From TrEMBL:
One of its GO terms (molecular function) is ligase activity. Belongs to the glutamate--cysteine ligase type 2 family. YbdK subfamily. This is Putative glutamate--cysteine ligase 2. It catalyses: L-cysteine + L-glutamate + ATP = gamma-L-glutamyl-L-cysteine + ADP + phosphate + H(+). Its EC number is 6.3.2.2. It comes from Corynebacterium guangdongense.
Length: 380
C-alpha cells in the first residue's frame, strides 16, 4: 500500500456520547410549497436563543437543528424540542410553517434556490442535473467512539442493520406530484451523487486514510471536502455519523430512530470489548437491503445473514427491541427504543402520507398532515 497517505487524527471520545442533526423545511401555509426563508428565520431566532444551534443548509428553504454533545438520547431530543419551539415562534412571525420529511411531495427543485456557499456551488457545477435535484432532508446521528481502530468494524456491523434504520424512518414516497412507489425516494435520489451512497467495507483505519488520500489526490472530494457516505467516520468529533434516516416528520419518531442508532453502536462496541466477532454482510446483500428498505419500507423482506437467510424487517425490529432493551435501560433511552413497536403498529411516515393522498387525492393535504405531526406527535 502507498505510504503517502497522511494520518487522519481521530478525536477519540471517552464515552459513547450522542449528537443529532435534523433538517427541517419551511413551507407556505397557502401554497404548501417550500419557501426560501431559512436565513431570515435563523437571523430572527438565533439571537433570541444563543444556547441553541441552527445551521443554514444546502437549500435556502432548510434549517438544520444541531444538538450539542449529550450523554443520553432524551437529553438530545429535549434540546431539539426546544429548538423546534424556538423556530416555530419565529416561523409564525414570518408567516411560514415548519415541515419535515424525506422529500417534498410536489415542490419543483428547479425553483428552489441553493444557499450561497462556495462548496454548494461547486457541487452543482460538478453534478449538474443530479446534484440540482437534492430536494431532500435527513437525520444524522453522531455516536462517540473511543478509538479509531473500532470505527470501521462498527460501521461494517451497522451496515447489517441499514434496512432497519431506514424502514423505521422512511417518509418520502412522492416526488414532483407522483407517488413513486418507494417508501424512501430520498434514498434513491441521494445516492446519485458521486460522493454519496454506501461506504466501502474498509478493514482498517489505515485503509480509510489511504482512501481519503486517493480521493483528494484524484479530485473527487475537492469540491466538497469530504465523502457523504450513508455511514461515515467524523474524525473531528470522534464519532461515527449515521446518515441513513429520512428526516422524520416529528420528534417522537426521531427519538426512536436515534435510540436505535445509539444502542446499535454501543452494542457493537461492547462486542469488541468482549472479544466477539462483529456481524457483516456481503456488499451485494447490503446494497440489496438498502434498495428493499427504500422500496418497501416496513414491508421489506431483508437478508439477515451471510448464508442469505431472510426475515421481515418488522420481525427484526421487534426482536431488536427485546435484545437491546437492557442496554437501552442502561443508556437511559428504553422508552424511546420501545417507540419502535408503536411505529410498527401505526405505520411509518410514508404509510401515513400515502394514506392521506389515497383518501384526498391531494398532496397539499399530505403537507398539511405532515406539518401537523410536527406539533402533535410529541416526544416522551
Amino acid at each position: 500500500m502507498n505510504n503517502a497517505a497522511p494520518h487522519i487524527e481521530f478525536n477519540r471520545s471517552p464515552a459513547p456520547t450522542i449528537g443529532v442533526e435534523w433538517e427541517v423545511g419551511l413551507v407556505d401555509p397557502e401554497s404548501r410549497d417550500l419557501v426560501p426563508k431559512a436565513v431570515e428565520l435563523i437571523d430572527l431566532v438565533a439571537p433570541r436563543h444563543p444556547e441553541l444551534h441552527f445551521e443554514r443548509e444546502f437549500l435556502q428553504n432548510t434549517v438544520e437543528l444541531v444538538t450539542g454533545v449529550h450523554t443520553s438520547v432524551p437529553d438530545a431530543v429535549h434540546e431539539l424540542e426546544r429548538g423546534v419551539e424556538a423556530l416555530r415562534e419565529g416561523a409564525q412571525e414570518l408567516g411560514v410553517k415548519l415541515w419535515a420529511s424525506g422529500s417534498h411531495p410536489f415542490s419543483d427543485w428547479r425553483e428552489q434556490p441553493v444557499s450561497p456557499k462556495m462548496t454548494y456551488a461547486e457541487i452543482i457545477n460538478r453534478t449538474k442535473y443530479w446534484g440540482s435535484q437534492m430536494l431532500i432532508w435527513g437525520v444524522h446521528v453522531h455516536v462517540g467512539i473511543s478509538h479509531e481502530d473500532r470505527v470501521w468494524p462498527i460501521i461494517n456491523a451497522l451496515m447489517t442493520k441499514y434496512p432497519h434504520m431506514l424502514a423505521l424512518s422512511a417518509c418520502s414516497p412522492a416526488w414532483e406530484g407522483v407517488d413513486t412507489g418507494y417508501a424512501s425516494n430520498r434514498t434513491m435520489l441521494y445516492q446519485q451523487l458521486p460522493t454519496a451512497g454506501l461506504p466501502y467495507q474498509f478493514g482498517s483505519w489505515r485503509e480509510w486514510e489511504q482512501f481519503q488520500h486517493d480521493q483528494a489526490t484524484s479530485g473527487v472530494t475537492s469540491h466538497t471536502g469530504s465523502m457523504h457516505f450513508d455511514i461515515r467516520p467524523a474524525a473531528k468529533w470522534g464519532t461515527i455519523e449515521v446518515r441513513v434516516a429520512d428526516a422524520t416528520s416529528n420528534l417522537r419518531e426521531l427519538s426512536a430512530v436515534v435510540a436505535l442508532t445509539h444502542c446499535l453502536v454501543v452494542h457493537y462496541d461492547r462486542m469488541i470489548d468482549r472479544g466477539e466477532q462483529l456481524p457483516t454482510l456481503q456488499p451485494w446483500h447490503v446494497a440489496e437491503n438498502k434498495w428493499r428498505a427504500a422500496r418497501y419500507g416496513m414491508e421489506a423482506l431483508v437478508v439477515t445473514s451471510r448464508d442469505t437467510e431472510e426475515r421481515w424487517v418488522t420481525q427484526e425490529l421487534s426482536e431488536l427491541v427485546d435484545v437491546l432493551s437492557p442496554l437501552a435501560e442502561e443508556l437511559g433511552c428504553l422508552a424511546e427504543l420501545k417507540l419502535i413497536d408503536e411505529i410498527v403498529e401505526r405505520g411509518a411516515g410514508y404509510t401515513r402520507q400515502r394514506r392521506v393522498h389515497t383518501l384526498t387525492g391531494d398532496w397539499k393535504q399530505v403537507v398539511d398532515a405532515t406539518c401537523a405531526e410536527m406539533v402533535e406527535m410529541r416526544p416522551l
